[in-house]
Every structure is written in C-alpha cells, then in structure tokens.
Design brief:
about 15% strand; single chain; seven-stranded mixed β-sheet; Rossmann fold; about 280 residues; 7 strands; alpha/beta; globular
Length: about 280
C-alpha cells in the first residue's frame, strides 16, 4: 500500500494543524494536489487584501459577517482578526472541520455551519456584511445564492462578491481550476466530460462560470445597489488621470468599464442594501 505523502510545513505555524488535516483528506491521486495545498497555505495573506477592500467601505469591527462558501476558513480568520462576529457556511462537513482547525490555530472565534448558499438558514437582515469569494462558480444555482445573500443582508449592509468571468480571454487558454483550454466556457455537463477525459480520472468540482454583468444585474434585481465594480473603477481611474476632462468622455469610460466587467479574468462587485 502506497504511503500517503505528508503535508508540507506550513508557512505560518498557526496553520500546521489545519494543513496536516488537509493533507490527510486531500485526493493525492489528483496531479494538482500539491498546487492546492500551496494555495490554501497562502490563503490567509491573500484574504487580508479582501478585508482591506471591504474596510474601504465600512469598518469590520463588531460587524456581523457571513462568509458564504467559507472553504477552509482563511477569510473567516482574517475577518475575526478585525473583530468581526463571523459565521462561515459550507455544504460539506469535512471542509468545515478544516475551517474549525484553522480558526483554532489562529486563536480566533468564528462559527461554522453546514449549509448551502441557495438556502441560507438565517433570518432576514441578519448580517451587516456578506462575502461570497471564489465560490460562485461552484454553486448549483448562483442566482439563488445571490438572492439569498440580499435577503440576509441588513439595511445599510454590504455584499462583497468575487469570482472568475466566464468569457475572459484569460481562461480560454487555461482555466483556473484544471489548467485546461476552454473548460471554463463549456456548459456543466459537457465541461465535466471534457475535464474528466483530459485528466483521465473522475471528479469535477466546477459548475457554470458566472458573467460579471449578469451577476451585477441579479444583485440589482434582488434590491441591492452596486457601489463598486469595474465600471466604477474605470470612472475613478479616468478622473484621477484627466480630472474634470474625464466628463467629456464619460460614455467611453463607462463602455470601457462595462467591457472589463465582461472580460476581466476576475471581477469584484460591492453592493449595498438601501436603508429603509
């Protein structure tokens, strides 16, 4: 019987118990296993940038935060570090165990619950901030998840949504999960067959990739106001570069922002729930 490889030494000692557990449950027959271990090992540092982006809009201190699709708890730990009251949800118990071990290692308090994003087990208006990061393409029904996020968000609260763009030229050459050309643009059933054929093994953990402008429209229809997006950032960049003259080319600037919302490799949307 082949001995399972051991997890590497964690970059931060606080992550070692988490990484040891992840090394026991990961599928080592997957050629990308070492890559995913490396990804999760460095994830806390990456999530600090997300927390910074949220705090450019509102403080996290004492905020009630829900992390939908919390994965291995990296973002939950960072949010808890900033004195937020954090709840993370994931549909798989074994993934939540990794998140709990990570939170224990970091010495932070966070609540983790088994739940699907399409049906969140919380009352209306229960959270001040809801994050939906790097999971939208893994959901059975992304639109339903976005509507649930809007429902549980309190008036004046923020939703932070981050994910890959289906039609970005960047992913045509190599998709972000399996490194295969065009995999990200295929419908789910066809994508599964293609990926399993190319990799020579069963297993496919990606649904239909989102599209940035569709995601923005769903949030708006759910009653949220998008306050930061590639369109907003294009306008800020133009005003910083050209000052008042940017108003003369406002339609072109907006068109450029809309194009980026459709084609950037990754899109970020921040939406606010209006106050009553």
């Amino acid at each position: 019987m082949t001995e399972r490889p051991k997890a590497p030494r964690a970059k931060d000692p606080r992550d070692q118990r988490f990484l040891d557990y992840w090394g026991r449950v990961i599928d080592w027959s997957d050629p990308a296993a070492p890559q995913w271990l490396e990804h999760f090992d460095r994830r806390v540092d990456e999530c600090r940038k997300i927390a910074d982006a949220i705090e450019s809009h509102r403080s996290l201190s004492n905020a009630r935060v829900l992390d939908v699709g919390c994965q291995t708890g990296a973002l939950a730990c960072v949010l808890a570090e900033r004195h937020a009251s954090v709840t993370g949800v994931e549909p798989e118990d074994w993934v939540l165990e990794a998140a709990r071990l990570r939170a224990e290692g970091w010495g932070v308090e966070a609540t983790f619950r088994t739940a699907a994003g399409e049906s969140l087990p919380f009352e209306d208006c229960a959270f001040d901030v809801v994050t939906f990061v790097d999971v939208i393409e893994h959901c059975r029904d992304a639109d339903a998840c976005l509507r649930e996020i809007a429902r549980v968000l309190a008036p004046g609260g923020l939703a932070y949504v981050y994910g890959p763009n289906r039609f970005s030229p960047h992913w045509f050459k190599s998709d972000p999960h399996y490194g295969l050309a065009v995999a990200s643009v295929l419908p789910n059933a066809l994508g599964r067959r293609y990926v399993e054929w190319r990799r020579g093994k069963k297993g496919y953990d990606v649904g239909v990739f989102p599209v940035g402008n569709h995601t923005s429209n769903v949030l708006s229809r759910a009653g949220l106001s998008v306050i930061d997006s590639p369109v907003h950032r294009a306008r800020r960049e133009a005003e910083r570069r050209w000052g008042a003259r940017a108003q003369r080319i406002a339609p072109l600037v907006r068109a450029w922002g809309e194009a980026r919302l459709l084609t950037d490799a990754l899109f970020t949307l921040v939406a606010e729930k209006p106050r009553a």
